[in-house]
């Protein structure tokens, strides 16, 4: 495209301009930052994929940061390789030509490296959906839940389902408490809880180094450790991400033997209050599944109030045969687990 240059190597982009572009863009988010790129680069079985469009002055007009994730190394790793794009690409003024350029280049880069790609949207792409479709990315509906932290605490409390409010009260009566932690010791304890949760659900979880790398991020983009305690022991946690005016629910769970202390009810409510006190405006509760498809996680989250948002996802299967083999392999892995 006349007047624009594509950059695909991270060391060729001005990091300050990249950070500034994401911070100032209305849809800029933590998953498209240089900090997150560094996290991916330093995590085992993760690999960042970067694209940027700049003009002759090196001013940025578009950014895409994806991450290739693998569950194994070597040949097995190739059978589990997928590329995930959280909240991207970010395009200046939603320029359709820039989006077209980025998607075409992304397809060239990724096609022989992963089985499938998935764009997890943080905005409604509107008329630009046709650009994704033209590049063979199929749209599917997918829900999210956003909590408006600019509302008063009283209003937020009223929007929490009555049963959930009772369970928050019971958590306190049962002796559970809430704290925001800042130490690596706490991070390790939280990771141990998440390991138990994901093992129970028969789902893979990233290596501890991924969370440690998040823990070491800069001040503009950061991980926040929200913890529920009982008798000086962490019994539940939410590892959230903070960036600009948004808190992102990233990984969360609690120890099964302490379910009767209601940590999973206490933590979100306390996070809402903490977010308000620290000038955040939105709590992003994360994925809530497909509309009209039963999903227990959605049933849990919706009882905390908030608004359903349907930004959907774009997906492209680059290698259908390997994709089907991977699905069979994952089911076998779950049975073994």
Structure notes:
This protein has 337 residues and is of the alpha+beta class. It folds into two domains: 4-142 and 312-336, Gcn5-related N-acetyltransferase (GNAT) (Aminopeptidase); 145-309, Aminopeptidase (3-Layer(aba) Sandwich), CATH 3.40.630. Helices cover 38% and strands 28% of the residues. The protein has twelve helices and 15 strands. It has helices spanning 15-24, 34-41, 74-79, 96-110, 129-134, 153-159, 162-173, 184-201, 208-215, 263-277, 296-301, 320-336, and strands spanning 4-7, 46-55, 60-69, 82-86, 90-91, 116-120, 138-140, 144-148, 177-181, 221-230, 233-243, 246-254, 282-287, 307-309, 313-317. Strands 1, 2, 3, 4, 5, 6, 7 and 15 form an eight-stranded mixed beta sheet that branches. A seven-stranded mixed beta sheet has the order 9-10-11-12-13-8-14, with helices on both faces. α7 packs across α10 and α8 packs antiparallel against α9 (208-215). The longest helix has 18 residues, at 184-201. The model has no long low-confidence stretch (mean pLDDT 92).
What is the compact description of this entry?
The protein is α+β, with helices and mostly antiparallel strands and 337 residues long.
Q: Largest sheet, described in full?
A: 8 strands, mixed
Overall mean pLDDT: 92
| CATH fold category name of the largest domain | Aminopeptidase
In terms of structural class, how would the helical and strand content be classed?
alpha+beta
Overall shape: it is: globular
Q: Let me know the CATH homologous superfamily of the largest domain.
A: Gcn5-related N-acetyltransferase (GNAT)
Note poorly predicted spans: none
The number of helical elements comes to 12
* Percent helix: 25-40%
Number of strands: 15
Structurally, the number of domains stands at 2
CATH classification, class level of the largest domain: Alpha Beta
Please identify the oligomeric state: single chain
Taken in chain order, the helices and strands follow as: EHHEEHEEHEHEEHHEHHEEEHEHEEH
Taken as a percent bin, the fraction of beta residues is 25-35%
Distance between the termini: 50 Å
Indicate the CATH architecture of the largest domain.
3-Layer(aba) Sandwich
Query: If you compute it from the alpha carbons, what radius of gyration comes out, rounded to the nearest whole angstrom?
Result: 20 Å
């Amino acid at each position: 495209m006349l007047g624009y240059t594509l950059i695909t190597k991270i060391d060729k982009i001005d990091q300050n301009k990249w950070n500034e572009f994401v911070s100032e863009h209305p849809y800029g988010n933590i998953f498209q930052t240089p900090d997150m790129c560094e996290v991916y680069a330093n995590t085992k079985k993760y690999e960042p994929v970067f694209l940027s469009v700049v003009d002759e002055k090196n001013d940025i007009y578009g950014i895409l940061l994806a991450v290739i994730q693998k569950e194994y190394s070597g040949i097995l790793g190739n059978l589990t390789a997928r590329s995930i794009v959280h909240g991207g690409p970010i395009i200046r003024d939603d320029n359709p030509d820039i989006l077209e350029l980025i998607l075409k280049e992304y397809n060239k880069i990724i096609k022989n490296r992963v089985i499938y790609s998935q764009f997890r949207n943080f905005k409604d792409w509107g008329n630009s959906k046709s650009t994704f479709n033209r590049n063979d990315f199929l749209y599917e509906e997918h829900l999210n839940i956003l909590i408006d932290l600019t509302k008063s605490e009283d209003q937020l409390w009223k929007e929490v389902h009555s049963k959930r409010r009772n369970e928050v009260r019971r958590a306190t009566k049962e002796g559970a408490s809430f704290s925001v932690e800042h130490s690596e010791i706490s991070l390790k304890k939280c990771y141990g809880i998440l390991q138990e949760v994901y093992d129970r659900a028969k789902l893979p979880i990233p290596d501890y180094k991924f969370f440690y790398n998040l823990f070491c991020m800069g001040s503009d983009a950061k991980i926040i450790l929200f913890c529920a305690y009982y008798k000086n022991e962490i019994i539940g946690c939410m590892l959230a991400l903070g960036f600009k005016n948004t808190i992102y629910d990233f990984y969360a769970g609690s120890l099964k033997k302490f379910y009767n202390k209601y940590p999973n009810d206490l933590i979100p409510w306390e996070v809402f209050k903490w977010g308000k006190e620290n000038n955040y405006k939105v709590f992003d509760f994360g994925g809530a599944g497909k509309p009209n498809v039963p999903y227990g996680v959605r049933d849990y989250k919706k009882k905390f109030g908030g608004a359903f948002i349907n930004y959907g996802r774009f997906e492209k299967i680059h290698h259908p045969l390997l994709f089907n083999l991977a699905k069979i392999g994952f089911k076998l892995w779950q049975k073994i687990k």
